[in-house]
Amino acid sequence: MTRFPFLATGQLLLLVVAAILLQGNSAVPLQVGTVRQLFLDEFLIASKQNVYLKLNNPTAREVVLRAEKPWEGQSMTYPCVFRDDDKFRLYYRASGPPIGSPQQRQEGDKRQMTWSYTALAESSDGIHWTKPNLGVVDFQGSKQNNLVWPVAGQAGSDLFPFKDPNPQAPAAERYKALANAGEHQLVALASQDGMHWRLLQKEPVIAYLPGNPMMDPPNLAFWDEAQKQYVAYLRNWLNYRIRGFRRTTSKDFLHWTTPVEIDLSGGEVEHLYTNMTTPYERAPGLYLMFAKRFVPWRKVDPGWPYDGLSEIVLLSSRDGQNFQRTFMEPFVRPGLDPLNWHERALMMGRGILHTSATELSLYYFEHYRSDSIQLRRAVLRPDGFISVTAPYSGGEFTTKPLMMEGKELELNFSSSVAGSVRVEVQDDGGKAVPGFRLQDCDEIFGDELERVVTWRRGHADVLDENMKEIPNKPSDLSRALRGRVIRLRFVMKAADLYSFRFR
Fold first, then answer.
1. How far is CA 136 from CA 124, 150, 195, 303, 431, in A?
2. What are the φ and ψ backbone dihedral angles of 121, each rounded to 5 degrees?
3. Inter-CA distances, 58 with 282, 313, 456, Å
4. Calpha distance 46→485 (Å, rounded)
5. 3-state DSSP call for residue 270?
6. What's the pTM?
7. How many CA atoms, within 13 angstroms, populate the side-chain half-sphere of residue 492?
8. Cβ distance 323 to 295 under 8 Å?
9. For strand 309-317 and strand 374-380, is the pairing parallel, antiparallel, or unpaired?
10. What strands lie across the sheet with 277-279, from one edge to the other?
């Protein structure tokens, strides 16, 4: 009873008794509306046979940014990306090399930097990025750079900006960010253009949290359209031993609730260093966390002065507070590059860009604290994080009861040339609905993002009040099934199913 049901488009996320009961009773239908449903866990699945969930790793593409300016240093970390009208924006930390020798840094605070700024890059396609000359921040006597913060006389470092879609947000606060102001407090910033930033108030908005004041960066915030509130994910220590995260919410970006540790639903506890949580825009109400798994006691290169290795793991949530570790395996590994087997070498950025009709782009930095630190793009098909997969020998699964909405059933799938997907619509009791039986379903094979399922006799039993047949398309479910509780039975062979929705 740690997750909440799906929402129809435009509905508010309400924590009501019915939502709680839904999770404890599989017979209560899920209100999926017309929202796209992803198989990030087994939440949708009532039963399965010879199919399994598969983690799909993104494909590494080109390096999109390198540290090549004197102000960028060796820790070009904490990237945040988002679409901004007709372009993409990417914010990242620009900080200098650690002070002192490696031995001195091991004995002292090895994270100490000679400077720490936030820089901006822009792109029209998510692949080719430029560093605009903004003239905002002075660096060593010149403003000819792409830095946006901090400006003279203002406290705060390590901005994690987002564009605020809250319709109540003033135009002068269209861009927002939290920033560190010392080790144990955060300040709130706003901007009209994303380049010129100001404090919303001088006083910190979150400070010296009782019991565990640590709030090292990154501390991320965004406007949650599904829940109609601001949400922030903050760093913390679990029992002062293990790195973890906590969540807080706000209606105005100034007054925040007491942070609560996120729930990993009984999953294995390990060091999760950075969270990079983002709502998944293609399926409102779903949240993806690209956490950095950190193993502090391991080392590959005996000549490297620091211990600790990292990789990227994927977590998911249906309410933003309770996260599932469907896979303990990594989402992104260090790979063959020896510089990625150094301390803290890999970290995913916050944000997912839809860079083409068939491609999502994610960004992660490599080669931390080296002269070759860089940001690399990785790609994945839309909804392609986790799939229900059937082998060549075939398999099937059936969903939990769903309240039928919409007209058509749309699938995001991929099959072998010898594979296929077929769908049967069942009533709440598991009996095939006439006209939408498995043998009526047109065989589906290929590789498509929005394939509409058709049934050869899908209209045969659609009758009006005088028991006369109503003309209907073979893909139209609405006349026979809208408002009814149904189950979907998927029979698959050599195929992957990523998502479905009623549209």
1. 22, 9, 8, 40, 66
2. -125, 155
3. 18, 12, 37
4. 14
5. coil
6. 0.89
7. 28
8. no
9. unpaired
10. 277-279, 287-295, 309-317, 323-324
The closest of 332, 249, 248, 239 to 293, measured between CA atoms, is 332
Q: What Cα–Cα distance (Å) separates residue 287 from each residue in 231, 240, 380?
A: 11, 26, 17
Sign of the alpha-carbon dihedral angle for 188, 192, 195, 196: negative
Q: H or E segment at 106?
A: helix 102-107
Q: Where in the chain is the domain with CATH 2.115.10.20?
A: 59-380
260-296 burial, b at 16+ Cβ within 10 Å, e below that, comes to eebbbeeeeebbbbbbbbbbbebbbbbbbbbbbbbee
Tokens of 255: 């007054």
13 phi, psi to nearest 5 deg: -85, 105
Rg (CA), the chain: 25
Tokens 């000549």 -> residue = 303
CATH class belonging to 59-380: mainly beta
State the pLDDT at residue 214: 86
Question: Does a cis peptide bond (omega within 30 degrees of 0) precede residue 338?
Answer: no
- Give the span between the Cα atoms of 217 and 235, in whole angstroms: 7
123 phi and psi angles, rounded to 5 deg: -155, 150
- Give the largest Cα separation in the chain, rounded: 88
Residue 162: helix, strand or coil by DSSP? strand
> Which residue in 114, 69, 56, 61 sits closest to 385, CA to CA?
56
Kindly provide the b/e burial profile for residues 177-194, where b requires at least 16 CB atoms within 10 angstroms of the residue's own CB. bbbbbeebbbbbbbbeeb
336 Cα distance to chain centroid: 26
Q: Give the separation between CA 58 and CA 78, rounded to whole angstroms.
A: 19
pLDDT value, residue 97: 62
The residue assigned the tokens 């000679």 is 114
Q: Dihedral sign, CA of 303, 305, 309, 311? A: negative
pLDDT of residue 109: 47
For residue 471, the model assigns a pLDDT of 54
pLDDT along the chain (503 residues), means of 10: 38 37 62 96 97 98 95 89 97 75 48 75 98 95 95 78 97 96 91 96 93 88 97 87 92 97 86 95 97 94 92 97 96 96 93 97 93 95 98 98 94 98 96 95 97 78 48 78 94 98 95
Q: Is 84 exposed, middle or buried (CB count within 10 Å of its CB: 0-12, 13-18, 19+)?
A: middle
Tell me the C-alpha to C-alpha distance, in Å, between residue 430 and each of 399, 424, 476, 487.
10, 10, 21, 7
Residue 20 tokens read as 């709680």
User: Structure tokens of 180?
Assistant: 């560190």
Residue 416's H or E segment, with its range, is strand 409-427
DSSP letter assigned to residue 439:
G
